[in-house]
Every structure is written in C-alpha cells, then in structure tokens.
Amino acid sequence: MPTIPHVVRHSLKNILFPTDFRPASSVALALALALARTYGSTLLLAHAMSPEPHRQLITDRLAAPDDRLREDARHKLSNFTRSLGATSFKGLLEQGDLEAVIPSIIHDHDVDLVVLGTHGRRGVSKLMVGSDAERIYRSASCPVFTVGSGVHSSVDWKLNRILCPVAVAEDSEPVLHYALALAEESQAELVGLQAIPLVPWQHHAVVQERSRCALESLMPADAQDGCKPEYLVRWEHPVEAIRQTSSASPT
Q: Of 8, 65, 73, 105, most Cβ neighbours within 10 A?
C-alpha cells in the first residue's frame, strides 16, 4: 500500500447526529458538540419516526395517533436541543425507515460526518449487529463515528489519543486519512494498531518489527510533527486487541 502523501485537513461543515432520545444519545452528544466547536460545524439533530402505517379513514375530529406521535417527537427534539448553547444547529424530524432517511439527510444537507450513540448490550464484537447503529453505518455515504454506552459524558470532551486499527494487507488509506486529520486538528496522539493472531511465539520479534515498519511506512512524513504517531502490534484477535489496547491506554 502506498504512503499517504500528506495530511489534508477535513472540512466538517455539517455533522449529523441521529437521536432516539435515549441515554446513549445524550452521551454521544458531548462528542458531537466538541467536534462541532472544533470545526465550526453546523450540528444537525435528527430523529426518524417509524414509517406511517396504513390508516383507515378518520371520521371524527380527534387528533390522529400519528399526529400525536409527531407532536411528542417534536417536543422531545426541542427539549434535547436546549443543552446545545451557542452551537449552530438544526432540528430535523423525519418519517421513514432509517435506511432511507439517513442517506436522504446526508445528501440533502451535505453531511460530512455522522455521530451516534450505541447501546452496546452485546459486547464489542457485536456492537453494531442487528442495531439501529448498523443500519445507519451500512447506509451512510460519509464516515460514521459511533460512541459506546461505556463512554463518560463531559462538557469539555477532547480527543487526546486516537487508536486506529489497520490491516496493512488491505486498503487502510481512507480510515488512516480521517484518523490523521482528526489527530492533527485536535493535537492528539495517533496509535496505529495491527492485530496478528496465531503467530508462533518464536516468530514474534521478526513479525513485530516487520509489521511496525509497514505501519510506519504508511504514515506521511509531516505526521511525525503533528500527531506523534506510535505503532503497536498485538497477537490477539482484532476485537480483543482493540479492547486490550484501549483499556491499557485511554483513548
């Protein structure tokens, strides 16, 4: 894989924050707000209501059930935005399946990044499976930043260390590009990680040095001054390697 020639600053004009109003959304909001302040972005807070069911003709003058649901969602969205302070934001209330709503918002509002909270009930290895987060992740045409339920919310949230797992044999340039740009903008340290399971212990030293050099060769020369990259090789399964590395050194 060729070296990334140089670090290009990403312009995050519009950040999309889908919310279901549950606690996981509130935790992720701190990160979305921090990124919006750093990049001077407009924060788009969006809630997708379930598709409108087929209704029978209403003959009385009572409010339709879907009208009450929309009003309730609008009220919740209004309450949710009260914590945004001076941040530039827009509230979006849409109706439809996530697979259709999210791509539509991304296209119509020129979204550069999606930030969303995940409940993570089934561990890191199945964090996205079968969840709304997976549906958003699969349908989005821009980067998606997920925030797990174990993250502590903070008003002064800041990126200090960024862990970027890569597979040298695959095309890791897009993810490295975004990780480098985030690290540069936040003056954070970047940790490049490669997980290589099932390597006999007697070959660890040779494989580790070879992999470290391969990781280092991917980084542009100007990254050395900005984000202070370091390179790690671990012998666990990738999921376990990420968990162990992030636990040992908070990122």
A: 105
Domain ranges of the chain: 9-157, 159-251
Query: How many CB atoms lie under 10 A from the CB of residue 35?
Result: 22
Is residue 180 over pLDDT 90?
A: no
What is the fold of 9-157? Rossmann fold (3.40.50)
| 8/6 Cα distance (integer angstroms) | 6
Query: Taking CA 206 as the corner, what is the angle to CA 208 and CA 175, rounded to the nearest 5 degrees?
Result: 30
**Residues 227, 202 contacting (CB under 8 angstroms):** no
- pLDDT per residue as tens digits for the range 90-142: 888 888 877 788 899 999 999 999 998 876 554 443 434 446 777 787 788 88
Strand, helix or coil at 120?
coil
Structure tokens at 219: 């980084």
Q: Distance of CA 109 to CAs 16, 65, 101, 113, 161, Å?
A: 9, 29, 12, 11, 30
The alpha carbon torsion through 193, 194, 200, 206 (nearest 10 deg) reads: -80
pTM for this prediction:
0.74
**Res 58: pLDDT:** 46
Per-range mean pLDDT, top range of 31-45, 132-146, 165-179: 31-45
Domain 159-251 homologous superfamily, CATH:
HUPs (3.40.50.620)
- Give the number of other Cβ atoms within 10 Å of residue 72's Cβ: 11
- For 240, the token pair is 């376990």
Task: Give exposure, 134-146, as e/b (b: 16+ Cβ within 10 Å).
Answer: bbbbebbebbbbb
- Which residues, including other chains, have CB under 8 Å from residue 97's CB and lie 6 or more apart? 48, 51
